[in-house]
Amino acid sequence: MQGLMQRGELLISGIIRHAARHHGTTEIVSRRDDGRIDRTDYAAIEVRACRLGSALRALGVQPGERVATLAMNSDRHLECYFGISGIGAVCNTINPRLSQDDIAYIAAHAEDALIFADPALLPIVAAVAPKLGGMLRGVVVLAPPAEMPECRLPAGIALHCYETLLAQTAPLPEWPVFDENTAAGLCYTSGTTGRPKGVLYSHRSTLLHAMMMTFADTAGLRAVDRVLPIVPMFHVNAWGLPFSAPMAGATLILPGRQLDPASLLALLNGERATLAGGVPTVWLGILNHLRQSGESFATLRRVMSGGSAFPRALMAEYAARGVHVAHAWGMTESSPVVTWNAPKPATVALDADAQLDQQACQGRTVFGVDVRAVNDAGEVPWDGATQGNLEFRGHWVASAYYRQPETAVGPEGWFPTGDVGVIDAEGFVTLTDRTKDLIKSGGEWISSIAIENIAVAHPDVAEAAAIAVPDAKWGERPLLIVVPREGRSPTPEAIRGFFAGRTPNWSVPDRVIIADSLPHGATGKVLKTELRRRYAAPDAP
Ligand code: ADP
Questions:
Q1: Residues 445-495: pLDDT tens digits?
Q2: What's the whole-model pTM score?
Q3: Pick the CATH number of 260-435 from 3.40.50.12780, 3.30.450.20, 3.40.50.300, 3.30.300.10
Q4: Whose CA is nearest to atom 9 of ligand 1?
Q5: How many CB atoms lie within 10 A of CB 223?
Q6: Theoretical Cys-Cys bridge with 32: which of 36, 53, 449, 493, CB 3.0 to 4.6 Å?
Q7: What are the distances in angstroms from CA 250 to CA 253, 275, 342?
């Protein structure tokens, strides 16, 4: 219709163009493997991403072709995000913590034409390359010439130096324009249940998700923020932070390989981070480090947490240290954020204790997506009590898996998450469990998340996991495995006693095992499959 608003394609290149033009001197900080800190800015990142776009074309990369990264969080990885998607190719971020078998499977399934790899991760590429013959044309090492490692690759796969490639290439004069529904990113699930599955993000979905993360009731990113994504850029695009930060003009602080608590705290404080995102395991480690060292947070005020439940007791401890922890829930299949925990008028009216209860749930649905809980009879009421299988749909939810025509998504777009939970009258979602982790005892469901939340509130407990063990009388019973805090030695009886009055008697774990550590998977989640193998198999101790 004549006189209607202008319309442009929602392209990822538009994000970096905006950041370069309006926040050109805003800092991007990268910590290298040797601990050195390098600084650049959005203007330089855009020029280099444009050089990369040209270089990719010179290497024959076509629109729609997949180009992989195997890299930690760094400025060069950020340039790959923008350079690869900017020319209409697809950036396939691969998780280097997966098994070599899974990495080879992903690169072959995606038919990656090139792999951009950190020097330290090159041995993985060398090991899987023989399985990728015929498809993989080259490996680009994310390093300057002086830091190029030795590497033998099969014939037909070329080895390139990233900085040499960029230096030899003139930047694209401008970013190409194409349909916003073009594929931009490809991220595989961690494959805890079978082979990894590919989720193909579009320019439009990525841009809308990034914009949502600047809402005041989500990450609320501002130009004065200094954002440290601890969550890796190979895991669901670091939850979209590398797109939201340049959109808002916020600084990115990229931590590289040193992800131990002391190194992270030094970077958070040394680089004056205001907001950071990471899985609960990371925040638990940092908290234990603070408890032991007596150090504190200098500037950090907000934490974004997801991937598994952040225990209520730890939220209280973070609040006492001046840091607000916001729970977000979602999956690789939803880009990932679907709910975010931010108050509503009804919840700010609650007393402090009830507010903390509220803060510990997974939050409420953000604009752009929708959530429901269903059982066999249909959608369950929002009464905070009736459990259902959680489903979501919306602008950044997958319609199917990549190159896997069979899909569980219903005709109306509802994606079955495999999570179980309740929704309250205000729309807040509380996750009970992943379906496969629920404990069914005598016809009642016991939430492992609820059991773990109580266990870590015990002053002697650092980390806890509850699993189901087969039981002749009840079908299943909960077993709790706890890792004590440094220097503490709680007894199983003391831990069991702590549950009295905090949960119904029938849901108190029958057995408590004290362990030195818990096994974690490639994305930081406790590996319950491994715990079940160790402790719930018929011949387990
Ligand atoms: P994976 O590849 O293992 O599926 P995801 O990061 O996509 O990795 O995992 C998504 C799952 O993580 C969700 O289905 C849910 O079970 C769990 N999860 C995500 N966020 C939260 C949260 N805030 N609280 C509890 N569990 C969460």
A1: 999 999 999 999 999 999 999 999 999 999 999 999 999 999 999 999 999
A2: 0.94
A3: 3.40.50.12780
A4: 331
A5: 13
A6: 36
A7: 10, 10, 21
